[in-house]
Amino acid sequence: MGPNGWAFLCVPLLTAVCGQAEGLSRGPFLARKRRAPADGGEGAPKKCSYTFLVPEQKITGPICASRGPALPDKDRVTRMDISDVRELLSKQQREMDTLRLVVDVDGNLVNEMKLLRKESRNMNSRVTQLYMQLLHEIIRKRDNSLELAMLEGRILNATAESLRLSSRYRELETRFAAMAAVVNNQSVLIGALEERCLQVYGSRRPESGGPPLVQVVPENIPVHVPRFSNEIQRDHARAFPRDRGSRAGPGPTGNKNKKNELNLKGPFRDCFQAMQAGHTTSGMYVLKPDDGAQPMQAWCEHDIDNGGWTVIQRRKDGSVNFFRNWDSYKKGFGNIDSEYWLGLENIYNLGKQGDYRLLVEMEDWMEKKVYAEYSSFHLEPESESYRLRLGTYQGNAGDSLTSHNGKQFTTLDRDKDAFAGNCAHFHKGGWWYNACGQTNLNGVWYNGGVYRSKFQDGIFWADYGGGFYSMKGVRMMIRPID
Ligand SMILES: [Ca+2]
């Protein structure tokens, strides 16, 4: 309470109010209304009450509304006290607000801290994972580089080994070429010595000796070390178990299967015409040349050099005996799907239909194929003993056939060669022998390449391997000139 306080004065204001219940004074006066008890009724005497009116006095302090006994000054609550309290409360409220704000901010900070901590943990985990991956990668790369180094080492070793082998191979090849030349020369020398012996001692006629052996140094040496073999086919009973055409027959035969024979296509004038007719599969066909008396079977080769090739001779496995007489060579023999000779008359009839060229394809015992091609080819009629007419050579086997150009055909029973004796007798085949020749493609099929024989009777092509190297496979084919 203010020290001075203020006096609370209650001055009764006497007002005479009688029967007026609604008299109410308003304004800056303290009004008191006292109602008389209602038990009087209208008849009861009216009671009067007194109201004291106190002149208005300016109130500067709190008004005590207490109706109780007046409090001592020191216990009175003044407006200032209330204001102070309010101010204090307001201040505390503000402090509370501030604190709440701080708490809110702190709470957000805590949450953020939590999030950051969580993120940090995740980051750590991720960093650890990446580190492990990196480590793994480093280890793997190190292993790879080690493996690479090992591989490089092995490649280097292999390269060195291959170089060494290649060098050794070249050395062996050179030695083989030298040996082949020596063998060839020795065979020639032995032949010459035999002839000289016969001449000196006169025990046999000179012409009964063999023909001069091939003395050319071959242009090409088959690139392998062959094994010498004497597996010659003089034992016909053993060597030609499938050869049923030793006697002169109607010509080379096809597959014995009748069904297959029925499926043969033709007849065509040659394999080129068959190809033009749309038959582009290599195989057996029926041919009938323009002047041919009867159709024949032949193998058509459509898989090399644009196709259309008529095969007139084939050697491949020694299954057919080629040491035959005139009639047999004239009509042909063998099996179309293995070894055969098409027949001189058939070849003659084919050749006179037009301009043909000849392809001689040969295969050595390393399965390397070489060829000799002649720009033109035909035979003269039987009255000329099927004389050979050839054009110019091109190829990679060397030209061993041109020396036979213009020669007549010789067999064991018809000697048309230029040698005193019968070349067919020494070379064991039928051919356009000279005296006797640089090639013998109808000779004896020897197994293995280089062979030993008193006479050069193998399937040789002098410019490829010399006279004592027998080819593994041969095909003679003709085709019209484009
Ligand atoms: Ca002769």
UniProtKB/TrEMBL annotation:
Entry's Gene Ontology cellular component terms: fibrinogen complex
GO molecular function, one term: protein-macromolecule adaptor activity
SMART domains reported in the protein's UniProt record: FBG
Positions of region (Disordered): 239-262
Keywords assigned by UniProt, alphabetized: Disulfide bond, Glycoprotein, Secreted, Signal
InterPro entries for the chain: FIB_ANG-like, Fibrinogen_a/b/g_C_dom
Protein name in UniProt: Angiopoietin-related protein 1-like
Signal peptide segment: 1-21
Tagged with keyword Disulfide bond: yes
Domain annotation Fibrinogen C-terminal: ranges: 262-482
Pfam families with a match to the protein in the record: Fibrinogen_C
Subcellular location per the Swiss-Prot or TrEMBL entry: Secreted
GO biological process, one term: fibrinolysis
